[in-house]
Amino acid sequence: MEMSSDSDVEELLLLYALSRSQRKRVWVHDINQKRKDLGEYHRLCRELASHEDRFFTYFRMSQDLFKELHELLIPKISKCTTNWRTPISTRERLVICLRYLATGDSHQTIAFSFRVDRSTVGGIVKEVCTEIWNTLQPEYMPSPTEETWKQSEKGYRETWNFPNCVGSIDGKHVSIKCPKNSGSEYFCYKKFFSVVLLAIVDPCYKFTVIDVGSYGRHSDSGIFENSIFYRHYIHGKSLLPDKPLPGTEEPVPHVLIGDEGFALKTYLMRPFPRALATQDERKTNFNKRLCRARRVVENTFGILAQKWRIFLRPIDCDVDTAIDIIKAACCLHNYLRTKQGTAILTPESEDENVPMRALITHRPTNRRSTTAAFETREQFVSYFKQ
Fold first, then answer.
1. For residue 359, what are the CA distances in angstroms to 98, 209, 295, 306, 319?
2. Residue 372, pLDDT above cutoff 70
3. Who has the most CB within 10 Å: 76, 187, 201, 382?
4. What is the pLDDT of residues 4-56, one digit of tens each?
5. Helix (H/G/I), strand (E/B), else coil: 348
6. What string of DSSP letters covers 239-270?
7. How much of the chain, in percent, has pLDDT values that exceed 70?
């Protein structure tokens, strides 16, 4: 093909020279190419294997439990080796995820420490958290059965002296980065953006049921009544058949116990308003008994936040990833409580707990209750008076 003029040839040669002079895009940054020599996993983590106490502090679990967890996840998080590059090992992927949960550091900080790309950290955290939930949930947070409720009722009756109670319920705001185009849906009354973690806890400080992801502006009662758990176990049903309280003959419903954020129901007991309780010793006594047993769920949230410090600062991810992170942390909580056999805190030792300040509770609700709900609470009031 002939050129129309010498100027056209010169222009093409100039464009070719410019394209050749442009800097080529690198596949892996020069700093990250030294990952296997200087990265945190290949240096510090290897040394921690010789120091069990430091290993536990770093990973929030013992070496045996880490190894067991890793073996469960290997088939789910492994990547194929290609002609282009060797993938990050499954062990290092799990380490990156656990370190992110344990510290709450940003993806960029974790990326610099482990000498990987920031987007790589984000992808690893999301994938590993998803697989932690998929792998651990069926065994360590299964759907509750009748036997589950019976064991929980026995624990609340014997340890916390609150019979016919099958669980303590509460909802907490988990702070997140402002989601794009979300308006005020996630903006809670504490003036930050959040998703809600609603949980029912057994007497051993383990999560029985969780519901994650509701808008921060919603109330505890509204979230609870729109949850899958409510539709499956509460609506038109009963957790367990009614039975008399110890030493009585009249059947009383089995209940959950919550704070002022929930409406009083036949299946859910909340304390009396403070103004009423101060005028009646019976009501004051009921409030003390209920609040002492309800501390189980508060302490559980405290243990969760102190171990996985991602809850101490806003989660800087999209909402779906934040939900995966919260669910994974709750599953890891149950996994470690089960495997480590941590002793149950008794009412006498509860004051030794670190106060839980990371997660914010909901506002009280003034929703009206039915006569049957008031009658059920009165039965507990009369029993605790004895």
1. 20, 18, 14, 11, 17
2. yes
3. 201
4. 566 666 776 766 665 555 544 545 677 767 777 788 898 898 899 899 999 99
5. coil
6. SS--EEPTT--SEE--EEE--TTS--BTTEE-
7. 82
